[in-house]
Write a structure and sequence with these properties.
The protein has a seven-stranded parallel beta sheet with strand order 3-2-1-4-5-6-7, sandwiched between helices. Helix 3 packs parallel to helix 4. With 256 residues, the protein is α/β, with parallel strands linked by helices. The protein is globular, with a radius of gyration of 17 Å. The structure holds nicotinamide-adenine-dinucleotide. The site of nicotinamide-adenine-dinucleotide has 26 residues, from helix 1 and helix 6. Keywords: Oxidoreductase. This is SDR family oxidoreductase. It comes from Persicimonas caeni.
Length: 256
């Protein structure tokens, strides 16, 4: 018996580093998976690379749009017969700038994707998860949901906000047997950190990379699969008494 046999999962941000690595693990463990991301071509590429036949499906949606969120949840129910797990993982780093210089629209967009995207996912998926007797909602926060980071104000604000969202949802949904937790990754080696490094110092992004590494007691970035392993634990029945908590995957970053 595999760890996610009989489970149906939605993963948002599924064409990105952490999302695709998690989809691979979920599929290896027997789940059926609905991949959600902005761009259909990238979703098709991801689905093809996963090579999981009819256990994988795709839905292009902007997670900040209420109708599109309802659309991906309905599509999952139609395709696979329900939802057991929502991995609300889509996110944007936004523009690197001090708070006094961030545009209203730029700040707003980061909250819409990173915060409203998770809330809308909970709003539409939780009733469907409850219909199947309960399950797991996992939100990707960040170490930026625990500590501040100069230049990343909109992102840090959004990643703290989803911790409050998670704690409240955990209390509201415990009665229908839905667990709600965040994963809080430290710097992970993928597109998002490369973008942050490039924005922080277009002339010397590698110096920013080294600076982040030095802040991690383990002296390295994490890998997408290391975050996916935590998502697998939280999606599986191994985590049935865990709710309302932050699960940190950061090489010791927030112990400092
Ligand atoms: N990479 C890191 O170091 C790191 C650290 C902590 C937390 N995180 C969080 O992990 C999550 C996954 O990011 P990643 O590291 O895989 O980076 P990534 O950029 O590879 O993946 C993010 C994915 O989200 C998608 N996305 C963005 N806006 C969307 C929207 N409006 N609707 C639907 N999809 C949208 C992107 O298209 C992309 O595929 C994000 O929430 C991110 O904030 C990343």
């Amino acid at each position: 018996m595999a760890r996610l046999d009989e489970k149906i999962a939605i993963i948002t941000g599924a064409a990105g580093g952490i999302g695709a690595a998690t989809a691979e693990k979920f599929l290896q463990e027997g789940a059926k998976v609905m991949l959600v991301d902005l761009d259909q071509d990238k979703l098709d590429e991801t689905a093809a690379s996963l090579d999981a036949g009819d256990r994988v499906a795709t839905f292009a949606a902007d997670v900040s749009d209420p109708e599109q969120v309802a659309g991906y949840v309905d599509a999952c129910v139609e395709q696979f017969g329900g939802v057991d797990v929502l991995f609300a993982n889509a996110g944007t780093e936004g523009k690197f700038a001090p708070l006094t210089q961030v545009d209203f629209e730029a700040f707003d967009r980061v909250q819409k994707v990173n915060v409203y995207g998770c809330w809308l996912g909970i709003k539409h998926a939780a009733p469907k998860i409850a219909e199947r007797g309960g399950g797991s909602i996992i939100i990707t926060s960040s170490v930026a949901g625990i500590v501040g980071s100069a230049g990343l104000g909109p992102y840090v604000t959004s990643k703290h906000a989803v911790v409050g969202l998670m704690k409240t949802a955990a209390q509201e949904l415990a009665g229908v047997n839905i667990r709600v937790n965040t994963i809080n990754p430290g710097p992970i080696a993928n597109r998002m950190m490369e973008s942050i490094e490039q924005q922080a110092s277009p002339e010397a992004p590698e110096a920013v990379h080294e600076g982040f590494e030095q802040q991690v007691p383990m002296k390295r970035y994490g890998r997408n699969e290391e975050v996916a392993n935590m998502a697998l634990f939280l999606a599986s029945d191994e985590s049935t008494y865990s709710t309302g908590s932050q699960f940190v995957v950061d090489g010791g970053f927030t112990s400092m």
